[in-house]
Predict the 3D structure of the following.
Amino acid sequence: MIAALLRRDLAQFFPFTGSGAALPVVFFVAVAMLFPFAVGPDVNLLARTGGGVVWIAALLAAILPLEKLVARDIELGFFDQLKLRGMAEEAMMAVRLVAHWLSFGPPLVLATFPAAALLKIEGETFQILVLGLIAGTPGLAAIGLMIAALTASLRAGAALSGLLLIPLALPILIFGAGALARQDHISLGFVAAISLALAALAPFAAGAAIRAAREN
Amino acid sequence: MPANPPSLSAHDLACRRGDRLLFRRLSFALAPGAACHVTGANGAGKTTLIRAAAGLTTPYAGEVRRTGALALLDERSGLDPDLPLGRALAFWFGLDGAGKADTIMARLRLEALAEVPVRYLSTGQKKRAALARVLGQAAPIWLLDEPLSGLDTASQGLVSELVREHCAQQGIALIASHQPLDVPGMTSFAIEDFAPAQQEHEA
């Protein structure tokens, strides 16, 4: 049952198979492309600030898929039908978290290659940037899932979720982008730790949220 | 069929929506083979009763007891709108281990629609698709919320026929509808009979 649900969720959210799911990645590369136009083609400046830009682009790209992540399946009665078949809300949300991360984390990491080339990020910095995104995107996905589940039953949910994600993602951004400035791997450890804690928490928080949404 | 015979019963059930008490002191017990028709005006609490019976809403008071798996049909089909109908149904058939998918599709006259994305289906076609999902589940307890709405006359007759067959195989059906069904031996109650007296003509 879990495997069937994961297959279905991946088909829904994965880039190029799901509906408009490639948008976050395109958006991410577009931001990296715009930045040199805005600040000028100074190689030193780009190399120094480019990593931070990639992190901000990743954070903003994480907001885009939230609107459809949970609300649509509540409206469809999809979660109700799974519940009747004995599946716990926590399990549904854990599967959704895995599918959401797979459809947005790895594509974003791949898109970092062209983005880094545009921003003149090379060598050690590039390596830390990619490692940081690998460590940080599960956390971004977990925050996104919790927010999407909490705001699913609200009318202005989509706009609100963007606003809520930014402060919650701040620790990941600080350590992830901070690792670039100091060129160290210890901050990456912090990013990974925050991500793991969030990913462990998210299914329970999101599960409780969709249970509560059902009662009204 | 499970070893335990299916059963569904409510004991002194009361449900609210928001601050409003919809019904109270509602009790019923359905044995294998029993069908029960709940009538009532829009907003009287039929859907809430069905959701409480399904365990999807916590009752304000009282309890629902049931033995056996549940199948729920309501106004939401649970089918992915972007997928062709055949694949959207195949997901649920796969979960429920439904063997005779083709027979079920043919029974509900859905074969011709298998390649049509769910979002292009009409209300009645969607309802038939949801019925196919219910049939595939092969659950002993059926909870049907407005199963006839949006259906043409022939399909309405088919719903009655399916309920008759389901009950003949010792299944239980709780049906909320303001339209009549042709099922012999079906009991029936009006949900308004259980409405709190002081709120009957609320301003």
Notes: Residues 2-214 of chain A form one domain. Chain A touches chain B through 18 residues (CB under 8 Å).
